[in-house]
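hey
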């Protein structure tokens, strides 16, 4: 082989290894400068030989041309959702049903964090990444291959000669990236994203992959989709194999043989999930053995061998500094509390919705009050209640403005509606 071609292949291999160490393991072994020099050398060779550029070259992660839209893609095997439970007793009921269905056989559970992002399906043929698809409605998703390629922790090739293997997992936006992105958006006078999940979704569905490339998305692998020639016997083995393939696997998973230990592990997260560098909305309990999973089977939408425990919404206490009103696109005036900044579910909250005038009256929320706010999943924080016992007499009762805060036109409240609207 031509020495230049050999050098190109060597550089790609080296750069892949270095970016795996840097992005996936978070353990860089060379300086940025050394990395940049190799990257530049590779770019120069590819510039001189455009026909040597392949889609799996590390230079192809920067994002290619704008697409006109996303094509539909039907999943090989549907991407299932999960049944939800909210209490320990419901977990015990799940366990009892599983044990009954397995005729009292011994079993193991693998418990994983439920990452609050977007499920995607990654298709590899002969080890080459060829397609990335959103979950969509579970049956048909959208082909977002060019955007997926920009995510550094997704390998563009894996050590597998399977003609077809689908790796499924969650694309998410780390909290620090989310906060930096929202700060940038506020500086640019753009609407900030409500939560990391919405930010990840918005970034993945960009028609311009160069924008996706700037968004610092990441991926945790946790499931296998359609495949051929793969013999894996359990979830635990799968997670180990995925790490061998150089995917990021969330390290917090644990294996248990009884449900009480599962429950104790889940609750061990109650007051530390807040300090994780990504958003989670619960934990997923999965029967470990694939043979037992197969015997338990699936319903149309959800597996009978797994369940999601949803964390209760996180709450925090803070003070209402003011109540301001904003005008929505449909002309509705929505009151919101301007808050003393408080840390909640991984982000700093300065505003929370008060929904409408009746809500404020019913809950007797006043300017100056100490209040409880909460964030439930994708919802922006809301003020749940005030704590009147903490009042000192300086609090002020709020009343809705009589004119629109934007254009000054009179506002009206129609019969049977809670909303005030601008008449303009
Ligand atoms: S397993 C058939 N594991 O939760 C099994 N899902 O409500 C399907 N999710 O669509 C999923 N973290 O987007 C699984 N460790 C995890 C997960 C996880 C997040 C999401 C996934 C799925 C949704 C179901």
């Amino acid at each position: 082989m031509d020495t230049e071609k050999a050098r190109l292949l060597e550089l790609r291999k080296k750069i892949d290894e270095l970016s795996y160490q840097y992005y996936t393991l978070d353990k860089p072994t060379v300086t940025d400068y050394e990395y940049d020099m190799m990257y530049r050398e590779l770019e120069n060779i590819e510039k001189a030989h455009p026909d040597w550029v392949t889609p799996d070259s590390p230079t192809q992660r920067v994002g290619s041309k704008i697409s006109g839209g996303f094509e539909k893609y039907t999943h090989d095997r549907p991407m299932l959702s999960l049944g939800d439970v909210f209490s320990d007793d419901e977990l015990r009921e799940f366990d009892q049903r599983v044990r009954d269905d397995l005729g009292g056989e011994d079993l193991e559970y693998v418990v994983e964090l439920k990452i609050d992002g977007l499920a995607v399906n990654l298709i590899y043929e002969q080890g080459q990444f060829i397609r990335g698809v959103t979950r969509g409605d579970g049956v048909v998703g959208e082909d977002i291959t060019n955007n997926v390629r920009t995510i550094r922790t997704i390998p563009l090739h894996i050590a597998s000669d399977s003609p077809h293997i689908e790796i499924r997992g969650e694309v998410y936006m780390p909290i620090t990236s989310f906060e930096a992105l929202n700060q940038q958006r506020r500086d640019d006078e753009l609407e900030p994203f409500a939560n990391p999940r919405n930010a990840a979704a918005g970034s993945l569905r960009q028609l311009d992959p160069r924008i996706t490339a700037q968004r610092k998305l990441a991926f945790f692998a946790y499931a296998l989709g359609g495949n051929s020639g793969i013999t894996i016997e359990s979830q635990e083995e799968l997670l180990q194999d995925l790490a061998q393939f150089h995917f990021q696997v969330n390290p917090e998973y644990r294996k248990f043989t009884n449900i009480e230990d599962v429950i104790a592990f889940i609750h061990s997260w109650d007051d530390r999930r807040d300090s994780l560098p990504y958003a989670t909305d619960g934990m997923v309990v999965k029967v470990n053995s694939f043979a037992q999973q197969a015997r338990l089977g699936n319903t149309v939408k959800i597996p009978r061998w797994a369940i999601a425990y949803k964390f209760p919404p996180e709450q925090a206490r803070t003070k209402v500094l003011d109540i301001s009103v904003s005008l929505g696109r449909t002309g509705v005036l929505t009151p919101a509390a301007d808050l003393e900044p408080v840390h909640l579910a991984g982000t700093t909250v300065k505003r929370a919705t008060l929904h409408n005038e009746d809500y404020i009256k019913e809950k007797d929320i006043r300017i100056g009050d100490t209040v409880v706010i909460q964030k439930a999943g994708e919802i922006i924080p809301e003020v749940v209640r005030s704590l009147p016992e903490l009042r000192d007499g300086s609090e002020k009762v709020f009343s809705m403005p009589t004119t629109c805060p934007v254009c000054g036109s009179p506002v009206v409240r129609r019969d049977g509606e809670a909303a005030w609207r601008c008449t303009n």
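The pocket of 2-(butylsulfanyl)adenosine is lined by residues 80-82, 112, 114-115, 119, 135, 170, 222-223, 284, 303, 306, 308 (CB under 6 Å). The mean pLDDT is 91.
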